[in-house]
């Protein structure tokens, strides 16, 4: 996770991110403090659940979306790391060598596959924002957008052994949804997805069937719930079992029956991040998961 010292919603990404909101009534200095404090509180809550958090500071004032590191890198079992090409110019400077060095120092990293050079060819794939990965069934779900190149998705799936599942998804205003992870979340036994965002009924059925094939309980979210970030959640492993981390706003949007179905296999951990959500992302976006094996204590290579 990244704690921002100069949080601001990113004006450069607002054109295609319909989930962003303008903080017209909040002073810049208040936004900065709130963003910093919300990440601090998130980290404390996650650690209380026994979730290890590697926290990095971002003191720079030219990386407004740095709080969302899951877009520029991902990690994978077997010691693999991917680095991604970003659509917006000012997001490309979020990539940090110190984060990659930490991964290599603390975990067994066999290789780093760097796709970022493909920005020159205008090919973009913004990590686990553009893709929602089913680690069990090995499927990479991806909604088409400016931030998701199908060519690069195919290349990623070949490198990392995933089946690509591409579809078109639209928000309540009929605009393409910019990132797949705002409309769906895949856990071990449950999946949340805004099926209504997929307007093609045949494709909607294919996606639903593929999600359910492994025996998961597939919970359909409404457009209104997607707008409240109910799909932007992430399953994590805590000291007492699996946890679904989501924002307080997202949890409030769920129906009692939906919550009951989630809690049949997961503990829900609500996190209060209204300021960060102004940037158009929520809890899942702030967490870059680590799927690497830790090095033994004292090991250096």
From TrEMBL:
Gene3D superfamilies the UniProt entry points to: L-arginine/glycine Amidinotransferase, Chain A
Record keyword Cell division present: no
Keyword vocabulary terms for this entry: Transferase
GO MF annotation terms: transferase activity
Signal sequence annotation: none
Pfam families in the record: DDAH_eukar
Domain of life (superkingdom): Bacteria
Keyword Endoplasmic reticulum attached: no
Amino acid composition bias (Polar residues), ranges on this chain: 10-23
Location of region: Disordered: 1-24
Listed InterPro entries: Amdntrnsf_FN0238
Protein name per the record: Amidinotransferase
Species annotation: Aliiroseovarius halocynthiae
Lineage: Bacteria, Pseudomonadati, Pseudomonadota, Alphaproteobacteria, Rhodobacterales
